[in-house]
Design goal:
GO terms for molecular function: methionyl-tRNA formyltransferase activity. The protein is an alpha/beta fold and 287 residues long. The chain has seven helices and 13 strands. It has two domains: 203 residues, Rossmann fold (3-Layer(aba) Sandwich); 74 residues, Formyl transferase, C-terminal domain (Methionyl-tRNA Fmet Formyltransferase, Chain A, domain 2). Helix content is 27%, strand content 27%.
Length: 287
């Protein structure tokens, strides 16, 4: 099997490394195509990586483009004569020309148990919604958003103290697990994509930093606590603005801090949430 990989973030690089390990075991097929953004694009993107080192050690040329749907990108994919193409950790939506540029299709991953949670901001939403389980789905891309047939899933339990930091690590590990479990039988032609049950589909909207604002006069301590855990690093953080200052909260709890421990009280409708890791920003102050 001839396959390719497009990515520009650490999550995708981790999957490539897992594929390299499978290659050393003789169960991967042939990696013959690597695609990514030009070096000057998305330089501030969280987890941004470059594939030059991968290309050097694998001997696979790295193709760089502005957009995956540009004619030069599509042409390079077609020229690679691929059976499958992975596109992982990529914000540009692949169009019809890309989806039909290989013999079998294009594969993506999404950090929910599809068809639940189509859309964006999957890690924060799973915590904000108070779910006790989420997961990662590997699926064949189609012209919809997260609507294509499934190739495999890994379930991830969410603990009562889960943060976006710890859940993101679990999601990253699940990506590697899916590559290891699904890719070898895929290379042997033993997997048939299974259609999603669209009647069970839910969609989670994108989030902006402004959505992290807390409104203590209408929120319970439990809701504030979930928001803080969901929006902590690597996300922009939950925050409350009062007395001409913004307090950005990274961690805390409903339990009163020990004597002498720095803390900031957030008075909710049913009690007090105590921020213990936070930053104070003066409203209107110049950067």
């Amino acid at each position: 099997m001839r396959f390719g990989f497009i990515t520009c973030v650490q999550l995708g690089l981790s999957c490539i490394e897992e594929l390299e390990a499978l290659g050393r075991e003789g169960t991967a097929g042939d990696l013959v195509y690597l695609g990514t953004l030009h070096d000057d694009q998305s330089v501030k993107k969280s987890g941004r990586i470059y594939l030059d080192d991968v290309g050097a050690r694998t001997g696979v040329p790295v193709t760089k483009f502005r957009h995956v749907n540009d004619a030069d990108a599509v042409g390079s994919i077609k020229a690679a004569d691929l059976d499958w193409l992975y596109i992982i950790g990529w914000s540009q939506i692949a169009g019809p020309d890309v989806l039909t540029a290989t013999r079998n299709g294009v594969i993506g991953m999404h950090p929910t148990l599809l068809p639940v949670g189509r859309g964006r901001a999957s890690v924060p939403w799973a915590i904000i919604k108070g779910l006790d389980e989420t997961g990662v789905s590997m699926f064949q891309l189609d012209e919809g958003v997260d609507t294509g047939p499934l190739l495999g899933q890994v379930r991830i339990p969410i603990t009562p103290t889960e943060t976006s930091t710890t859940l993101y690590d679990k999601v990253a590990a699940a990506h590697r697990t899916l590559i290891r479990e699904v890719h070898p039988p895929l290379a042997r032609g033993e997997i048939t994509p299974a259609p999603q049950d669209h009647s069970l589909a839910t969609e989670w909207p994108g989030r902006t930093p402004a959505d992290g604002e807390l409104h203590p006069d209408t929120m319970t301590v439990a809701k504030i606590e979930r928001m803080v855990r969901a929006l902590t690093r690597p996300y922009p953080g939950a925050f409350v603005t009062q007395d001409e200052q913004t307090v950005r909260i990274w961690a805390g709890s409903a339990a009163a801090p020990s004597v002498g421990q720095p803390s900031y009280p957030v008075h909710a409708v049913d009690g007090t949430y105590w921020a213990t890791d936070y930053e104070v920003e003066v409203v209107g102050a110049e950067a």
